[in-house]
């Protein structure tokens, strides 16, 4: 016979999980339903599908240069993610594999920089980009994100589980350090790379504040900026805004579901 207290505890746990799931899923449900309704229905709080989806899609595509905006977003997020993974994994590999009496002090100083808010860096960073003639360019968005301290920390912690015997065996076989990194380390750490890809891509794709400051023409704007701009109108069309939000959400969902299994393995520190 089951324990009544255990049954009550299990029921309470499931209820809390259901509540958490509802809170997590409801914004997506509201976004999908809102995209099918008119702005007036969204304002009224209508929570059932309507018949304005096609109209909202047409208005959105006539208001926005979608091919150019998607190119900007994918180029910035894709190139930024690739460069961040390369630079940060190299740094994490170096911090863990090469010993120096200053190593921990330098690494500790880097971690301390995580406490500096981005708002404190915006003005000097903007002045730097202006002096380099990079305002309103892709470089101004990508370069400041390449050296991610958090991703360096993440790769260093993951590298602690990397089998050093593989590195020693590769050295005996005559491989140089860069060959060990490319042909031994990267394939073994693919789960870590997958998890880092999701984290970095989502951060680059959803980046709002810095692109808002640096990108000054409509031709250079990203999808995040465009969707935010739709809400700043005097009378925003919330149905159209929901359509834009769907298009802005889809790429991150696709990346996550494609790499979901690797993401879990990478977060658990799996090495294969």
Helix-strand blueprint:
Blueprint lengths: L3 H32 L3 H6 L8 H11 L2 H32 L5 H10 L6 H13 L6 H9 L2 H11 L4 H9 L4 H12 L1 H16 L3 H6 L8 H8 L7 H21 L1 H8 L5
Subcellular location: Cell membrane
Family: Belongs to the binding-protein-dependent transport system permease family.
Pfam families: BPD_transp_1 (PF00528)
Could you walk me through the main structural features you see in this protein, from its secondary elements to its overall organization?
The protein has 272 residues and is mainly α. It has a domain at 65-232: MetI-like (MetI-like fold, Orthogonal Bundle). Helices cover 75% and strands 0% of the residues. It has helices spanning 4-35, 39-44, 53-63, 66-97, 103-112, 119-131, 138-146, 149-159, 164-172, 177-188, 190-205, 209-214, 223-230, 238-258, 260-267. Helix 4 crosses helix 11 and helix 8 (149-159) runs antiparallel to helix 11. The longest helix has 32 residues, at 4-35.
